[in-house]
Amino acid sequence: MRLPIRSLLLILAVLLLAGCSAVRLGYGNADSLARWWIDQYLDLAPEQDVLVRERLGRYFAWHRKTQLADYVTLMRQGQKLATAQTTVADALSLGDELIRRGRILAEQATPDIADLLPTLTPAQVERMAARQAEKNADYAKEARLAEGEAGQRKARYKRLLERAEYWFGDFSNEQEAALRRMVDAQDPGSQFWYEERLRRQRDWLSLVRQVQRERLPRERVIQMLRDYAARFDQPTEPARLAQAITLRRASAELAVAIHALMTPAQREHARSKLDDLIHDFTELSRETAPG
Prior knowledge:
Elements: H1 3-18, H2 20-28, H3 30-42, H4 46-66, H5 68-83, H6 88-116, H7 122-143, H8 148-168, H9 173-184, H10 190-214, H11 218-230, H12 238-261, H13 264-286
């Protein structure tokens, strides 16, 4: 729950799923959207709002200048995978590339987050904790955690079908049935990833409360944030790390199996979508940041 990082990733995900027509408009307002997201968690005081506005403006200017061209490179890699034979190693590599880019975002934002955290009040920290609890309830409901593995598989199937049809176009009845069989054959992993979500939040709140309580030196806060980012995407306990690796490999195997179901026309649909996104991100990278 690294505030600007999570908000940026959410914004980029929403823009990609909304379609190419939203990308350029939405990215131009990404700093305002990120500020709004942060304010929902913290209810920023006026002086905090000034700090957040200034730092987000600078952050997104850096992002536009240095990261968008790299995203184009990643999308071109995705185009090759969409239209050619792909392997589990390809899928795992693409996932690793996404994690690596997330860590670049985190490192860039770390000094700014270190400046914001000491300004938080106990009330703001508790507001953030309450907001997280609300979002967790929404997540658990959407993932149908209370319904056991059967319900979790149904939720996973729905989520995967929606994402796959966005990229590849409508599935036939036969393709839908095949996807359902593949999802039913795997551990949904939903409860595990929910527990990991809670672990990250507990670690985050512990870090924030320590900074708020002890008024630590800035360099110490920066190091704490870097340590948090380093363990963000994987458990530290060996047994849970092994489970995470197993689930990620299973997801990669499922992605490859879904890809194998696609017709040439569906693969061309994905290639075309990525081509449109490549065009928009290329143009955005050449523009001067607003303001």
